[in-house]
Amino acid sequence: MATFLDVSGLQGFSNILVFLFISVVVYAAMGMTKTIGENKGINILVAVLFGTFVLFSPLVTDLIVDLAPVIALIFLFGIFAQAGITYLGGDTNDQMQGVKIVTYVILVLVVVVFATTKIRDNLDIPGDDGVDSKFDSAVEVIFHPKIMGMIFIFIISIFAILLLAGKQYHF
Question: Against a cut of 0.85, is the pTM above it?
Answer without folding.
Answer: no
